[in-house]
Amino acid sequence: MQDISLEQAVEVLLEQVGPIRGTEQVPLMEALGRTLAEDFSAPFDNPPFDRSPLDGYTFDSRAVASATPQAPARLRIIGEECAGQFFDRSVPRGCAVRIMTGGAIPSGCDCVVRQEDVAAEGDTLSVPLALHHLENYCFAGEDIRRGTMLMRGGTKITAAHLAVLASMGCDRVNVIRPVRIALASTGDELLQPGEPLQPGRIYNSNLYLLAGRLREMGFAPKILGILPDDCAEAARAVQAELDQSDLILTTGGVSVGKKDIMHGVVRQIGRRLFWRVCMKPGAPAIAYTADETLGIALSGNPFAACATFELLVRPVLAKLSGRDELFVRRVQAVLTNGFSKPSPGRRFIRAYYEAGKVRIPEQHASGSLFSAVGCNAFVEIPAGTGPLEPGTKVGVVLL
Ligand SMILES: Nc1nc2c(c(=O)[nH]1)N[C@H]1C(S)=C(S)[C@@H](COP(=O)(O)OP(=O)(O)OC[C@H]3O[C@@H](n4cnc5c(N)ncnc54)[C@H](O)[C@@H]3O)O[C@H]1N2
Ligand code: MOO
Fold first, then answer.
1. Is residue 37 located within the same domain as residue 83?
2. Ligand 2: does its nearest atom lie under 6 Å from the Cβ of 304?
3. Whose CB among 42, 99, 203, 322 lies 3.0–4.6 Å from 103's, allowing a Cys bridge?
4. Which of 256, 246, 248 is nearest to 227 (CA)?
């Protein structure tokens, strides 16, 4: 099998997946950031009743039509209503009800006057100004009319959407179920952080890098931990996840070494889609399907895992989740510090990008991790490129 280009590899991967259609109901408070599964129309008007925008008095405006400071209208105060209460009698013309902001305007009333603009003594209200019909008056449905399409299925729920749903009395929301991702690292050399360091062993950092990136993107991967370099055992562990996963991600064991078990795992449980992509680092990635679940086995070198996660896995996540913003963005930038090695093959190097300029850190071997801290981009160098001078225009992949 010939190595395929990165673009071909992404195409093959994207052919295997479609947007998740399954739905689930979640409590409203947990719906933030989720994708609404179906259209949502207003079940009722909001506000549900005509209401006062002021603390003051409400009455029939015709009773104060000729009021002036010299000849105020006198009304009889027959009651009081705070927000949350409901004055259920009709208010006769010539009478008034004290009302607080948010209170329902009683029948018989069509305006509200500010408390500061009138004088009340006992049950007599003195109104020194005329108010017109519907002055200082909020209508039912002024915010949301019953039946209005408020949000379409596919909407990503923000804080404002949450508030609108709450205002409509919604306590549970139908959302698209999450993308189910199982994540494991392979390698007998790997130790869990917290275990004592032993000769020849290293700590498993890839799992944290990939789980961290997935969580930064809003996914909640199932962490399988470390799988041993034992083909049958690793195959069993992967197989056990197939029916509950959309994507199985592993790192390590994909090259040509004695313990590169992922080839055997793929042979045992599924069908290989490709092995080896024309890029550095991360070339030996394997893609496979098993029981219709997509598996991507990335190489174990930390930066190789990082680069192939961004370039191969992210497009798959974008398609599964319907989130186009996860497709990588590319820009052109000026390389400020040059790159002394030739690039016979297509190469991606970690970099810091800001405002049209990009810089490559000194350490960039695929086995080294520390200099990836703070990097927010890859510089992309096409195959057959010589060393790059400072000031060269380069392609940049933004992370
Ligand atoms: N004879 C050849 N050897 C290698 C080739 C080749 O073409 N011919 N390719 C090299 C390239 S390129 C890469 S990349 C690696 C890929 O190797 P694997 O994906 O099989 O990964 P491992 O051998 O399991 O590990 C590589 C390296 O990374 C360390 N590692 C593995 N997992 C983790 C982890 N979870 N956290 C931190 N570090 C990890 C591992 O100890 C190795 O040092 O193969 C080259 N060899
Ligand atoms: O992918 Mo390897 O990390 O190219 O060296």
1. no
2. yes
3. 99
4. 248
